[in-house]
Amino acid sequence: MSYLPKQVRIVEVGPRDGLQNESTIVPTAKKAEFIKLLGAAGFRNIEVASFVHPKWVPQLADAQELIGQLEPVPNVRYSALVPNMKGLERAIESGIRRIAVFTAASETFNKKNINMGIQESIDVFRPVVKRALTEGISVRGYVSSCFVGPYEGAVAKEKVAEVTWSLFELGVDEVSIGGTIGAATPQDVEKTCGLLLQEFRGHKLAMHFHDTYGMAIANVYQALQMGFTIFDSSAGGLGGCPYAPGASGNVATEDLVYLLDRLGIQSGISLQLLRRASHFIAQALGRDLPSRVLKTA
Ligand code: HMG
Ligand code: MG
Asked: What residues have their beta carbon closer than 5 A to ion ligand 2?
């Protein structure tokens, strides 16, 4: 018999993962308004920016200014990606209270994405996480390319578990498991996440599916049945990684919320207010967004 949880937590990554691949630069004030609308829709976890090199991701170069414009909302946690100590210094200056460090289960992908091998990135993160925690900033971790990598193909589940352990050992409180290029199927999820469930009892694991091959919502359903309760998604299905060829948007938050609503699983998100946020950012970008549910009346 399949198991379904009663409640899930959604981490809305649209303002970061969603926008990082967009070539139309969205003005800072519009990003702030988008994030405000997301907060109004019920999100308690919103990834808003990255403190990466501005030349690598020009869309997010305004991270500090943007965070300065965000209104503090009770119970809403804003977070931002941090790749190294320089990024952490910028994050501390911005006043953000949660960061995320990010590595991969694929050596080549990691080098292309952050110019570091996997072990090198863990070594770089060690003092970053330590200092963040000392400053009272909580830390999430990401492992990208957990199922099928853009360069080396199928990824060994043991490698995913090993890198996930390395992040928990640094002191992160949650690890997000990335289907970066959206090529994984529910069978891949069952295989890799089955091992993760065995190895990480009592640890928080999030699922982060991109939707390149239209598999993301099927993968969410697979993970739900396995008992996972934290999901990353992007309003409207915005998103992609500029350093993973072919990677398109995240699973659309509307599609995820529709599924959860129909399954009777609580997420705390108002689909109607979420639509408002997605229409707003679609207008700012001047294009339609891929979410199927958003296209319905
Ligand atoms: P690098 O060139 O190796 O950096 O880039 P470096 O340490 O050699 O430094 C070179 C210069 O950059 C120096 O300046 C540093 O100060 C500066 P100079 O002395 O030459 O004037 N620098 C910085 N400036 C601002 N902020 C910083 C920073 N760090 C160094 N943080 C680096 C290494 C990691 C910075 C670069 O590769 C980078 O920014 N990569 C980010 C790529 C990225 O954002 N990818 C997308 C996010 S990951 C993703 O989408 C996947 C995810 O969604 C999960 C999934 O889908 O699987 C999370
Ligand atoms: Mg991603």
From this structure: 17
Radius of gyration of the chain (CA): 17
Q: Within 10 A of 74 (CB to CB), how many other CB atoms are there?
A: 6
Span 149-182, pLDDT tens digits: 888 889 999 999 999 999 999 999 999 999 999 9
**Burial, 264: exposed, middle or buried (Cβ in 10 Å; 0-12, 13-18, 19+)?**
exposed
Assess whether 146 carries a catalytic annotation. Answer: no
Choose which residue among 50, 53, 142, 151 to substitute to test ligand 1 binding: the one with the highest number of ligand atoms within 8 A of its C-beta: 53
pTM above 0.85, yes or no: yes
> Are residues 232 and 179 in contact, defined by beta-carbon separation less than 8 angstroms?
no
> HSE-up of 258 (CA within 13 Å, CB side)?
16
Q: Read off the pLDDT of residues 67-77 as tens digits, 9 standing for 90 and up.
A: 999 989 999 99
DSSP 8-state class, residue 175: E
